[in-house]
Write a structure and sequence with these properties.
Blueprint: E1 12-16, E2 22-26, E3 38-42, E4 48-55, H1 58-66, E5 78-81, H2 84-95, H3 97-110, E6 116-122, E7 128-134, H4 142-152, E8 155-160, H5 163-170, H6 194-199, H7 206-209, H8 224-230, E9 240-242, E10 247-254, E11 259-263, E12 271-274, H9 275-287, H10 323-340, H11 364-374, H12 379-396, H13 399-476, H14 478-487, E13 491-493, E14 500-502
Parallel strand pairs: 7-8
Antiparallel strand pairs: 1-2, 1-4, 3-4, 3-5, 6-7, 9-10, 10-11, 11-12, 13-14
Helix pairs in contact: 3-4
GO cellular component, one term: cytoplasm
Organism: Arcticibacter pallidicorallinus
Pfam families: PSP1
Length: 505
Amino acid sequence: MDLPTNYKPFNIIEVKFKGSRKDFYINHEHAYLEMGDLVVVETTTGGYDIGHVSLTGELVRMQIKKKHQKLDDITRKVIRRATPADVDKWKAAKDMEWETMHKARTLALNLGLSMKISDVDYQGDKTKATFYYTAEGRVDFRELIKKMAENFRIRIEMRQIGMRQEASRLGGLGSCGRELCCSTWLTDFKTVSTSAARYQNLSLNTLKLAGQCGKLKCCLNYELDTYMDALKDIPDDVDRLETVIGMARLQKTDIFRKLMWFSYPNQENWIPLDISRVKEIQKLNKEGIKPEDLKDEAAELEPVQATKILDYENVVGQDSITRLDERQNNKKKKKRNNKSRPKQDDAGVALTPSSPVAKPARPAANNQRREQKSGPQNPNQRREQNAAANSQKREQNPAAPQADNNQKREQNTAAPQTDNNQKKEQNAAVHAANRQKREQNTAAPQTDNNQKREQNAAVHAANRQKREQNADAQAEGGESGNKKAQGSRHFRRNKNNNKPKPNAE
């Protein structure tokens, strides 16, 4: 579709970040951007962030009106399209979120804070992280911020969110089997009360009515307006109707078919009545008039048509849990049926023991081949044939086996004798070598011992001379040593400086 010549494209785009967070930015350079492109945008606290383009063009103008924002309030701009370096840095920041969240949880537990940190969102430039937490009341987390700043070395922002916002950020699957509405398209979280379940005639079971966030499901409000419109025609305060037979109590109300079921006490049958007739009986009861029986005024119900089973439904049989067992049972039944069936001839007549039928004669050539292959069926005849064949073989080759056996015997007798002689010679040579080694070993220690004894005798003689010289020296220096000892009695050694010190007498 061609645009007018004087048309100017809307220069504001919508960018989506982690956890369904969206915001509007000005495309001041009028760069061509499509949905899903990664762009680098400005932030309010400095630095930059990276997100995906979610909307462009006139649809953004409609979203701005829906969120009741003004065009003048949108001041942040798109810096550029994300480069590969920006994308690598952004992915590295996202990989740190899981570990950072668990470390922050341990710090909160150590400080004893009653809060649950559910998610962490890193900025694209890895300079700031936003921690989302849930708590029942206000939490003093000033000490926690100090410890997290020391551990992570980044700017930290704490945001308290509700249970529904937590479920929308984390995502998941609902009881319907689809992804949660709050994490896909739902942006406005309206209050849901139990009256919405009462108007829709739902059982007040908290396990069925509550979602993953622990609150009532948001989908209870989807059809509430339709039920409220249908309830306008249904009369109020019609718990019972008075008749001549007795009091009939209300059991059930079908809003869309506009029927109300009543029953008498001690009776199991329910009587359907149109809403118009119920209003008439209610007016009669106020005037003091009682109808005879409600069964005479029961509404005619249309017969319930059986649902048509389509051809493409459960064709393969994969919906059945016991489909494999059924196949095995069917095979067994087929085998049993084949065994129990009587055999039939070519004309289709069943064969019984009382009416045997002659089998067709086989050709003579086939019988001869079988006799050649298998031989006669009598075992005695087979033995005689085998014995005759063996005797013929022996007569044909009577001398060959004997000559072969004689040669083998001569070879077997000569080979061991030569082997034994060789082994005996080898053993004799080994014994002679061992004998020489023993003689050498016995002679060597004797010569070594004699040398050692002579050396020890020379050492003892030298030591004896030294002792005698020392004794003479001590005898000569005895007198001079006594004089020195007398002069040194008046002095003692100091432990600190090891100098002589006179005794104080």
